[in-house]
Amino acid sequence: MSRAASTIIAIDGPAASGKGTLARRLARHYDFAYLDTGSLYRAVGQAVLAAGGSPADEAAALAAAEALDVNRIDEMAIRSREAGEAASVVAAMPKVRAAILHFQRDFAANPPGGKAGAVLDGRDIGTVVCPDARAKLFVTASPEVRAHRRWLELKGSGSAASEAQIVDDIRDRDRRDAERTASPMKPAEDAYLLDTSNLSIEAAFGAAVAIIDKAMS
Ligand SMILES: Nc1ncnc2c1ncn2[C@@H]1O[C@H](COP(=O)(O)OP(=O)(O)OP(=O)(O)O)[C@@H](O)[C@H]1O
Ligand SMILES: Nc1ccn([C@@H]2O[C@H](COP(=O)(O)O)[C@@H](O)[C@H]2O)c(=O)n1
């Protein structure tokens, strides 16, 4: 018997905007599968770093993307500042993006666990990976607010990075992600913009559910 079409929710936005927190919670709320697509690029960047290479080396990045085993991603290692930076360097390479596009689309179309839908978060979900998603959100917050949230998070895990360093990282990453030619970060034309600068996690979730329920009705 063929499976009903999966309902896809696309959550895009810049670094540390809160899209992962929101997407994970939405997946629980709708009982959908969840995919953090940034973790794929982080894993590729981290694999190149771990092998002593440079993320700017296209051959090394492509080899790491082709060898990526999504079941063996080191969740701790990919969360470092360095892995985030390396991710945005390898993510600008069209061949790296092509190597992991199929996995993302397959996850969205055939969510694991027999779920009826999937929530994917990233930079190009609404524009490239799943342009036909049922609901699309582009989650933003000011660079200062995002840097403060990320600083709190990294401090909790023992990182010594200063808030000033983190805001610089975020601005660099935003620029690289928005200005690259391959699948640049941008809101899809039919995405709803959700600025969480002045919203708590709870308030952002409530606003997102209201938008998505309307889009799905
Ligand atoms: N509305 C909010 N108010 C306060 N803190 C928040 C809010 N949303 C998320 N956070 C916190 O901000 C940090 C970054 O959130 P999160 O990891 O969800 O962002 P992200 O956009 O997925 O980041 P990345 O681009 O690195 O994957 C986390 O520590 C999270 O708990
Ligand atoms: N769909 C995506 C998701 C991520 N990227 C790149 O990966 C970097 C890390 O992503 P986080 O969501 O964990 O911050 C990000 O800066 C992008 O360069 C992407 O290109 N497309």
UniProtKB/TrEMBL annotation:
<keyword id="KW-0963">Cytoplasm</keyword>
<dbReference type="GO" id="GO:0006220">
    <property type="term" value="P:pyrimidine nucleotide metabolic process"/>
</dbReference>
<feature type="region of interest" description="Disordered">
    <location>
        <begin position="163"/>
        <end position="184"/>
    </location>
</feature>
<dbReference type="GO" id="GO:0036431">
    <property type="term" value="F:dCMP kinase activity"/>
</dbReference>
<keyword id="KW-0067">ATP-binding</keyword>
<feature type="binding site">
    <location>
        <begin position="13"/>
        <end position="21"/>
    </location>
    <ligand>
        <name>ATP</name>
    </ligand>
</feature>
<dbReference type="Pfam" id="PF02224">
    <property type="entry name" value="Cytidylate_kin"/>
</dbReference>
<protein>
    <recommendedName>
        <fullName>Cytidylate kinase</fullName>
        <ecNumber>2.7.4.25</ecNumber>
    </recommendedName>
</protein>
<feature type="compositionally biased region" description="Basic and acidic residues">
    <location>
        <begin position="168"/>
        <end position="180"/>
    </location>
</feature>
<dbReference type="InterPro" id="IPR011994">
    <property type="entry name" value="Cytidylate_kinase_dom"/>
</dbReference>
<keyword id="KW-0547">Nucleotide-binding</keyword>
<dbReference type="GO" id="GO:0005524">
    <property type="term" value="F:ATP binding"/>
</dbReference>
<feature type="domain" description="Cytidylate kinase">
    <location>
        <begin position="9"/>
        <end position="208"/>
    </location>
</feature>
<keyword id="KW-0418">Kinase</keyword>
<dbReference type="GO" id="GO:0036430">
    <property type="term" value="F:CMP kinase activity"/>
</dbReference>
<dbReference type="InterPro" id="IPR027417">
    <property type="entry name" value="P-loop_NTPase"/>
</dbReference>
<dbReference type="GO" id="GO:0005737">
    <property type="term" value="C:cytoplasm"/>
</dbReference>
<dbReference type="InterPro" id="IPR003136">
    <property type="entry name" value="Cytidylate_kin"/>
</dbReference>
<keyword id="KW-0808">Transferase</keyword>
<comment type="similarity">
    <text>Belongs to the cytidylate kinase family. Type 1 subfamily.</text>
</comment>
